[in-house]
UniProtKB/TrEMBL annotation:
Stated role: May be involved in cell division.
Alphabetized Gene3D superfamilies for the sequence: Tetratricopeptide repeat domain (1.25.40.10)
GO CC terms: plasma membrane
Compartments where found: Cell membrane
Quaternary data: Homodimer.
Keywords from the UniProt entry: Cell membrane, Lipoprotein, Membrane, Signal, TPR repeat
Protein name: Lipoprotein NlpI
Organism of derivation: Enterovibrio norvegicus
Length: 300
């Protein structure tokens, strides 16, 4: 899914001129996952490193207001988050709130962190805080729906994600998350019929509709990955699309009970280091849920 563009780094610019455990599932697959396309893992850019250095320099200034300092900590948190340094990012987001507690964007990303950690009640509270501060915050609406989905509260998740989808019916990722909830709530056949209908009603311009085509069996897995390799303009876009493709394909294999393939695909989704995609964020959560399920499964 597209990166969460939480907020531009306007303040900094104006002031500075600036592997997991092996599967124990009995289900297996003969799919040769090691032959699937791979991107070079994304690395920190010079721009990110320079931005961190400039932010650190800026924080030494004594003439900053509390509001300015809150914004700067938030922006440094975003950079750390984009580098996968999530503990450091969370510290910065909490520091930001200590200087200015009325920040819907900060509560939103903290809610995502709580969801990743399986702290669903804390996530709901964080997203509720975001929406209390900004009732039009669509990221929080979507993210609360995802948290409700992972928390097993499918009726409430469907409510949030259906509203989110109706706000932009051409956004494939809104339809995909709604589909995942409906699979749990109504079964795959009915959910797939609804996704197919939404695909037909869309303008089909969003690349994510290619994932929808995979789900509704309008394209094969091999065709899907060939399309990614053929249409990606550079390694960054290849890594992003593979992160998405592997994650949503893993969800399908997981639904089928093929946990071995799902585990492999979730790990592949994380392999490109696309840290600020929700698919990368939740792949680790999914791996943990599979491991928990396997531990609880009765031994044969």
């Amino acid at each position: 899914m597209r990166k969460n563009r939480w907020l531009t780094f306007t303040l900094v610019g104006s002031l500075l001129l600036l592997s997991g455990c092996a599967s124990t599932s009995s289900a297996s697959s003969s799919q040769p996952w090691h032959l699937l396309p791979m991107a070079e893992p994304l690395q920190p850019t010079t721009q990110q490193e320079v931005k961190l250095a400039r932010i650190d320099q800026l924080l030494t200034r004594s003439d900053l207001t509390e509001k300015d300092r809150a914004q700067i900590y938030y922006e440094r948190g975003l950079v750390n988050d984009s580098l996968g340094l999530r503990n450091l990012a969370r510290l910065d987001f909490n520091r930001s709130l200590s200087f200015n507690p009325a920040q819907p964007d900060v509560f939103n990303i903290l809610g995502v962190y709580f969801t990743q950690s399986g702290l669903y009640d804390a996530a709901y509270e964080a997203f509720d805080s975001t929406l209390e501060l900004d009732e039009t915050h669509q990221f929080a609406e979507r993210n609360r729906g995802i948290a409700l989905y992972y928390g097993g509260r499918y009726e409430l998740a469907e409510r949030d994600l259906l509203k989110h989808y109706k706000d932009n019916t051409h956004d494939a990722y809104r339809a995909l998350w709604l589909y995942l909830v409906e699979v749990e709530k109504d079964g795959d056949v009915l959910a797939r019929e609804r996704l197919a209908s939404r695909y037909q009603a869309s303008d089909k311009q969003d690349w994510g509709w290619q994932i929808a085509r995979l789900y509704i069996r309008d394209v094969s897995e091999s065709e899907f990955f060939e399309n990614i390799g053929r249409t990606s303009r550079d390694n960054t876009q290849l890594a992003e699309r593979l992160c998405e493709g592997y994650f949503y394909l893993a969800k399908r294999y997981q639904t089928m009970g093929d946990y071995r393939s799902a585990e492999a695909l979730y790990k592949l989704a994380m392999s490109g280091n696309v840290y600020d995609f929700v698919e990368h964020r939740y792949a680790m959560l999914e791996l943990g849920l599979i491991a928990q399920k396997m531990r609880q499964a009765p031994s044969s």
